[in-house]
Amino acid sequence: MAASLANYNVFVTGGGSGIGLACAKALAADGANVTIMGRTRTRLEAAAAELRVLAPEVSINIFVGDVGVEADVAAAVAVAALDGKLDIAVANAGVGGLGPIMVTEADNWQTIMQTNLTGTFYTIKHAARAMARSGGGAICGISSIAGVRTHRYMGPYCVSKAGIDMLIRNTADELGQNNIRVNSVCPGLVDTEIAAGLMTTPKVFADYLDCMPIRRNGQVEDISSAVRFLCGPEASWITGVVLSVDGGHHLRRGPDVEPFSRLLFGDDATAGKV
Predict the structure, then answer these.
(1) What residues make up the domain containing 238?
(2) Which of 122, 153, 157, 208 is catalytic?
(3) Does residue 255 sit within a domain?
(4) Active site includes 208?
(5) Looking at the domain assignment, is residue 234 inside a domain?
(6) Mapped to the 3 state alphabet, what secondary structure does the chain carry?
(7) Residue 102: inside a domain, yes or no?
(8) pLDDT tens digits for 84-115?
(9) How many C-beta atoms surround the C-beta of residue 48 within 10 A?
(10) In this predicted structure, what is the pLDDT of residue 86?
(11) pLDDT exceeds 80 at position 34
(12) What is the domain count for the chain?
C-alpha cells in the first residue's frame, strides 16, 4: 500500500489534462496538496474541479502561465509552496513536433526547445530552490521514448526529450547534497490528446505496436503510477533514474512516422530533396 502524502505540497506543470492531470490525481488521491500550472484557464479550472471531487480534503490551486517564461514558473512555485514548503514537482508540460530537419524552421525548433527543455529547466531550478529551503524533496521530469530511440522526421522533439534526460541525471548528481531527488519517466505511445493523430492512423499505430513487446498503447495512469512511485517516500534511495514506461518499446526501434511527413511536407522534403 502506498504511503500517505498528507501535508505534502506538489507542483505539476501541464496539469490541466493528459499525463499531467493523471499525475495530479495520483498525488492528490494520496493526500497531497496540489498546484497545477498551464496556459489555459478554463482547462485548469475543469481539472481542478475533478481534483476537488477526487480529494476534497486537500488544497487544490491553479496557476495560469507558460513554462517557457521563467517569471511564470517562479511565481507558480511560490503558489505551490504552501507555508514555504514544496515537496514534489512534476515537470510535465510539453509540446509535440514533426518535420524533416532540412525544412524545420528556426522558430519551430525554438518553440519546442523553449517549452520542453527550457521549461523543464525552469521548473527544476525554481522547485529545487524552494525544496532546498525546506529540507529537500523530489522532482520528476517527463521525457519520451523519442528521447531514447530515434524518430525520423521528429528531430527537434527527440532532441528536446533527450536533453531532459541528461538534465535529470546531471541535476540529480548535483542536488543530492540538498536532499533533493531527481528522476524522469520516459513514456511510450500513451493515449493523450498530443498522440491522437498517431493512434488514429492505422499504418503508424500498427508500427508503434510492432515495436512493443507488450503490444498495447499506454494509458495516462501507467505514467502517473510511475511518477507517484518515484516522487514518494517509497523511492527515497532512488535518484538519477530515467525510467522507460513504454511496454518495452525502448528495446527495439523508433516508429515509422513517414506517412505524416509526406502528407505535411511532401515527398521531396521527406526524401531529403530540398
Answers:
(1) 9-270
(2) 157
(3) yes
(4) no
(5) yes
(6) CCCCCCCCEEEEECCCCHHHHHHHHHHHHCCCEEEEEECCHHHHHHHHHHHHHHCCCCCEEEEECCCCCHHHHHHHHHHHCHHHCCCEEEECCCCCCCECHHHCCHHHHHHHHHHHHHHHHHHHHHHHHHHHHCCCEEEEEECCHHHCCCCCCEHHHHHHHHHHHHHHHHHHHHHHHHCEEEEEEEECCECCHHHHHHHHCHHHHHHHHHCCCCCCCECHHHHHHHHHHHHCHHHCCCCCCEEEECCCHHHCCCCCCHHHHHHHHHHHHHCCCC
(7) yes
(8) 999 999 999 999 999 999 999 999 999 999 99
(9) 20
(10) 98
(11) yes
(12) 1
pLDDT digits (tens, 9 = 90+) for 207-239: 999 999 999 999 999 999 999 999 999 999 999
Q: What is the CATH number of the domain that holds 113?
A: 3.40.50.720
Share of the chain above pLDDT 70, in %: 99
- Residue 2 included in any domain: no
Side chain identity at residue 161, one-letter code: K
